Amino acid sequence: MAGQRKGGKNRAASLSPSERKSIGSLGAQARWAKADPSRVSLSRAVCGSLESPLCIGEIQIPCYVLEDEIRVLTATGMSDGLGLARGGSMIAGMNRLELFVSRDRINPFISKELYERIRSPIVFLTPTGAKAYGYDAQILVDLCEAVLAARQAGVLQQQQMGIAQRCEILTRGLARLGIIGLVDEATGYQYIRARNALEKILDEWLTKELQPWRKQFPDQYYKRIFELNEWDYDPESLSRPGVIGIWTNDIIYDRLGPGLREQLHEYAGRNASGRLKHQLHRYLTSRHGIPELQNHLSAVMALLNAATHWNQFKEMLQRALPKPETTLSMAFDDLEQIKPKSKK
Q1: How confident is the model at residue 39 (pLDDT cuts 50, 70, 90)?
Q2: What are phi and psi of 184, to 5 degrees?
Q3: Which of 39, 185, 189, 313 is the most exposed, having the fewest neighbouring CB atoms within 10 Å of its CB?
Q4: pLDDT in tens, 185-200
Q5: 115-132 pLDDT, tens digit each
Q6: Are 211 and 284 in contact (CB under 8 A)?
Q7: For residues 309 and 285, what is the distance between their CA atoms, to the nearest angstrom?
């Protein structure tokens, strides 16, 4: 053992300060993030700062967007946002979130996948070059749901009820599929995303060859638009007000990516009466375009189902899924509502 210690000291003495710093950094990364020690590079955040946190009510959580487009919330910010106590009884090698989800009253409501993700924070560099630890933003939603399920089951201790109350505040302020938009708003990444997106979208999402028709829009999409506008809805009828097509351009295609709708309209062409010859989604590729459309539709459906009236939906849509290169203060297009006649 003495020989090993002596060898280690001799090796350390032979290293330059930068080499010792690099080795120390890798060691800390492996301990904190359970990462592979051979990983020598860290993802860098392209947007975000401590001065531009994600704000939900009075809760503020620093957030960043990484170069691979992962939206992260800082580990400390999430712990503080949930109201987890600092210091106190800690276990060596565990961060506060990991310790919290390992508790007997919470752990049964935490999935194995969520537990492993909490045990392995993302190690990244902020735009200023500082090393930081964080989590995929979606984890916050999953964790809040688990805590609220534990509260519903009546198993939380009294000191944990405050954490559950914060989870309720966070859950009310977040839509599961809207958190990406909120993080992008806080970091300013929506503008970078818009500038870089068009070329990639045109290459990967679109095809000039007309694809076979397959139903992409669920009936519930149209049903909720009718309900939020207090229109009579007939599930057997395919007749819809013309304004719904205009709204769909705004709700769906304008928000999928910059310039996407214009290119789709060019591919689809128009007949003598000025109507599109084909549905726009028939020019989306099955590998990239259709999955992106379905992901966006899922987010829109969550907002449609959460809204209680049309104006509320418009506000939620612009906040959670803003159009590229617009600000959140720019509301959903103020289009004239053409109401069908009510049934007598």
Answers
A1: very low
A2: -60, -35
A3: 39
A4: 788 776 776 556 556 6
A5: 999 999 999 999 888 999
A6: yes
A7: 34
Q: Does the pTM exceed 0.70?
A: no
HSE-up of residue 86 (Cα within 13 Å, Cβ side) = 6
Q: Shortest CA distance to 70 belongs to which of 36, 106, 46, 102? A: 46
Q: Are 292 and 256 in contact (CB under 8 A)?
A: yes
Which DSSP string corresponds to 35-60?
A: --TT----EEEEE--TTS-EEETTEE
Q: Alpha carbon of 10 to those of 6, 15, 19, 301, 311: distances in Å?
A: 6, 9, 14, 63, 71
Contacts of 220 (CB under 8 A, 6+ apart): 301, 304, 305
286 CB neighbour count, 10 Å cutoff: 11
- How far apart CA 294 and CA 90 sit, in angstroms, is 43
Give DSSP secondary structure letters for 238-281. ----THHHHHHIIIIIHHHSTTHHHHHHHHH-B-TTS-BSS-GG
